[in-house]
């Protein structure tokens, strides 16, 4: 805490001392690492990143970063909290410096389940269907989320900065359910997900570190929703940033992951949403995406506690990179995947055997767990020539590339896919998203 008080009005944001609650996280200024509190005598007090502080009548107050948890059930968390066959705990435990603005819209120390929607006073959480609202007893054994894993790894990435999580997700919701209402007022803050999220942001003080988003499964129910997901999500991101007056607001999202769906149309739509999210991952700016296709499930749609811990860590790394990019005012650069034909180097074989596909990742997508000459599963091909096939895919060049042998070179365009079939054998914890990219000559 700074030892000086000031009457200066040069600060862009301050917290009213009398409004601060027990266990609250105050959002630090990205440039200075400080939070400013205004007292009743109109003096201003600065507080450094960290804590705990006692401010006015509130205790256990920290200064750090606030992240909104938005989306549907995989963000709300629907993993088993305990193993149903052994009763062993599967969840992350809380720790000092990780706090939650909970479903009752009160600050508390964070512990699972992070979302308890049945306790919300907002109408929207009781009109949109969610199994934990209809039957809150589910939360006795389900409700494990990615939030605590995110917060712990985010602290590791950012000098142990305190983290405030704001519970705003709701199960089973589509992107249309998250659409901005025409006006933000008391009624829409009560009856819409977007309005409720904005009301919570206002209630926790205004500035936030960013938004965590995990949604898209419900948009696979109809081809029209799946095919327009990319443009609609871009608009949603733009709208949020406009409403918060922060064009560089970090937004870290999760590409929808594995499933055990047996409806062919839904499976096709699922791939459409995944590929839309992959395209969004590759765009420069203040939005970043992470994969979940290599994570385990607890049912046909919902990631397990173990899978959510992995995704939480990935989100923490992505969010940290976005935060640094936002502070610099320079959008995060995304190195794309690359797939190109490679002819054989033995002259006698040139033209007698087909070229292979040389696949290259980038620093964004690690190949650290690959071993040279290991077979790599999960790749596929898309082409008008349905007879072209993969012979094998193996790590090469000290495991920095993957060389994919194919049956023949088609006369039409060829696209290399990854992660679009399940189960994704041999891909554990690579962290690669599902994708479809053109093979270049």
UniProtKB/TrEMBL annotation:
InterPro entries: Carb_Esterase_6, SASA, SGNH_hydro_sf. It comes from the Eukaryota. SUPFAM superfamilies: SGNH hydrolase. The keyword Hydrolase applies. It holds the Pfam family SASA. Keywords: Hydrolase. Residues 64-319 form the Sialate O-acetylesterase domain. One of its GO terms (molecular function) is hydrolase activity. This is Acetylesterase. It comes from Mucor ambiguus.
